[in-house]
Every structure is written in C-alpha cells, then in structure tokens.
Amino acid sequence: EAGEGPLAVFIHGFPLDHSLWLDQLKGLAHVRRCIAIDLRGYGKSDPVVDPVLTMEML
Hints:
Blueprint: E1 7-11, H1 22-28, E2 33-37
C-alpha cells in the first residue's frame, strides 16, 4: 500500500503475486492511494487449507 488520494487497486494475474505492481505503486503514489492485493493462495495471502483450489474459489 502506498500514497494518498483516490483509491487504485491492483490485482495480479495467474500465477503471479502483488510484487508485479510494486513499480506502478511507487510511480502513482503521489496522486493515488494504491493497494496491490494477493489473491488467495498467492504471495503473502493466507495459505490455502483445502488442497484443491479452483479458479472459481479465487
């Protein structure tokens, strides 16, 4: 998370994580509040308890 102002949310694609957007967060933080999230089971999100993770669950 970085910056202040109108919110911009960044969501990564499969099979990446929030780090994909770090350069964009730094570049836009002067005009936006930027948040890059990790989808369930990726990056710093909680580990998946169920061994089967489908696209619908994400």
